[in-house]
Amino acid sequence: MTGHTTARQRLTAELLDALRTDGGVRVVTGEPGCGRTTFLDHAARLFRPGPVRYVRAGGAHELEDSFRTAGPLLLCVDDADRWDAPSRAALARTAARIRETAVRTTLLLTAAHHRPLPAELADLPLLRLGPLTPGDAALLIRERAESAVAPAVREELITAAEGNPALLRALLRRLSPAQLSGRRALPRPLVDGEVLADVAGDRLPGDPGGLLLSTAAAARATGEEDVDTALVVRACPTAANDPLPDLLTRSEGRLRFRSALMARAVYATAPPEHRRAAHLALAEAATDPDDLLPLLHRAWAVSAPAPTVAASLSSAATDPSSSAPPTLRRRALTRAAALTPDEAERARHHLAAAEQALLAGQAADALRLLERARGGTAPASVRGGAELLRGAVLLADGPVEDARESFLLAAGLLPPPAAARATLGAADAAWSAGDPTACLSALSPTHTPPTLPLAEACVRVPRDLASPRGGQSCRRAMGVPPLERSREWGRAGATAPPAARTPPTDPLPNGTMPASSSSASNPSRDHRDGMRAVLLARFDLAATPLRRVVETGLHGTTPDPLLRAAAAALLLGDVASARRAGARALAAARTSGSVSLEPRALEYLAYAELRAGRHQLARTHAEEGLRAAERAGQRNTAAHHHAVLALAASIEGEADLVAEHAEAALRTARRHGLAQAATLAHWAVARSDLGAGRPREAAGRLGPLVRPGARRGHFAVWMLAVPCFVEAAASAGRPQQAAGVVEDFALWAACGADPQAPSQLLRCRALLAGPDTADELYLRALGEHDDTAGDFERARTELLYGKWLRRRRRLREARTRLEEARLGFERCGARLWAQQAAAELRAGGAAPSAAPAASSGAGDLARLTPQQLRIARYVAAGATNREVALSLSVSTRTVDYHLRNVFATLGLRSRVELVRLVEQEEKTGARL
């Protein structure tokens, strides 16, 4: 695979690097066809320190000879599980000797994982090869296909192969050039028993019946890797007392195949009548015959068409009172479609199945089902529903302008309640793209909205802003279209028409429209009314409907209203309610199995914590949210989590992490038109520059984002970066560049929608003021900070005030302010910012107060940065570099870089020494 570094190749390089420091032995396992031999060969090609020897069965003398080699040596043993017992014993002795001594030999073994490892190899460190990534699978198709492969065919091949290289190659051999190019239909099923038997080879049992077939049939119905042991045993009572077959493993009442490919092969190669009998037995063994699962098994026991069975299955799968997870509902509805002869009804089943697939985080599967639902013969309501769901998929993972067009098309096909959700989705997409005009256009009311009395709606906005004219200045500050251009507002009069979800007061998640089939509710209408009023800068009219959304949502138990409540609470500046609603939405999404909603709930939590000044909690939520978004295939949502992580890292002073997460956010933002995520990422990089003492660079990055012009950042975000720009411009000796944006920021602060803005505005004015007024402005800013949470912003004001005082030789006052700033930065983990304060203290002739002394032994680990310390703890717990990267949502390259610095800083030579140091400092009570 030349010209491209695959995930497998990177894993090989990481493994060889790890083996040099943690014992030099690894058993590489995986299911049949996963590429163990290829992995071993690639490791041999990458091994540079010395020679490589392939040892065959019976080569015990070669193992002994290896210890006589002076230099580094790599021993490669393929299919070690197939060696005879004496030879495996010799391997085990060699492995023990390598691990216990300081020899410079590395031993790599491969062994199949579809059966238990032989006892001689069972205690050796394992590396299990997972499936190919979709990108690597696409590369394999490009390199192995003998003719052109159509994109749709390529995607179906990747899905069908489930990351197994051998199965993917077998499918390429099976299909003709006409089928690969899409000119002829693909065979159904695409992966049949013959193909699977070819890949499984002699590993497949001759008569896969009984417990094996029952387990495979149970897994086939649910789509899960493990199944209920009690159910399978009741369906196959004759096997209850038999030894467990080698292909199966049992744990905590669940039964599973060791290899997913072997489970598929056992099911596909069994005679059809045996498969139907197994499903019937499982249906009869269920404790509740009316539950969805036994109905699904009965559906697999019949041949198409069977409209009565399909109707019963569909009814159970769409029953809102059912506790079945979306994955099971999706499989039931897909099976119902297969059993339905009527085209229109079949399209409805496919649409319902796509909705459940989307909730389950299976976006690619949802899109394939939608293609089947949106045919020309489908009813308009089905085609509209398909476009509505397609818009939701693209909003989370695709060009957001394409998402908007799908939503708008859906709005023209659907009846009013669903059409309202579609227009809200179109507004969400326009918001993510940074197009306020399109956002307002999407929310143009089709009926007269309810009137909101001004006296009832006005909550905390200054009196001069409780009018359309007052709100005009806020709109000018935001850069949204002038009120006179909004004909819809003129028609509506003193009312609050529907508006988009995402507020201009905070960077919020990139889409909240759930894939729900429920009709538009009053909270949904309130949400639209409040959002549009906010977009029109009529905060006086937005407060009442948004407060109703929060109160109603917090009484709900399902994810949709809770997510709506979290968004509305953030608009209102009610961070406590936003956190409570986000946490409940996360719990509800997990309880219901709605995988696609988890990343969004975590996004709300992350932004709420940032808003509250708790960036480390925001980082925790964003790291978890990023993993959830990647699992669900939501690249746009992942980009927003990357932006949060970049912002958090810019406070902690970790420039490499800021750069990595900002670039990851920008990579998707550029491809999918995510103006909001892009602005946040650029802001994070600029704040990192400012924290590192590079104000000129920070001003250069932020200037185009905050000043008027075509390059100004997202209309809902740019004003949040103004305080950083003013500080950077003033520190770089260019205060005149910031005067105009401060006046725009003053308009925004007057809107009353951002509790941090008043103190930040006073700080900005102090930075640009003359000596006669700056002192008072700084003191007033600190007074405003007393009313808001968060150490970081207050510490920044203390730092700037302390610098101002020191330069005027008011050293005693300066020391007080600078020490307060240093302590504030330390409390929130802003290391580089604390160093700035300490440097200012030293420049003023005072050493900063010593940090509280930790107990003995804390000195070494205290020298590490926060990220280095996190990585050191993971490694000391036995995690590989790849596992650390997955846990911290960073690249393995970043982990490698930090780990090298950890070793250099602490003077260590191996992971073993790191483990000992961490254990020692934990025993002495050092704070890790």
TrEMBL record:
Residues 857-922 form the HTH luxR-type domain. Residues 465-528 are annotated as: Disordered. Keywords: DNA-binding. The keyword DNA-binding applies. PROSITE patterns: HTH_LUXR_2. Residues 514-523 have a biased composition (Low complexity). Pfam families: GerE. The keyword DNA-binding applies. CDD domains: LuxR_C_like. This is Helix-turn-helix transcriptional regulator. It comes from Streptomyces thermocarboxydus. The lineage of its organism: Bacteria, Bacillati, Actinomycetota, Actinomycetes, Kitasatosporales.
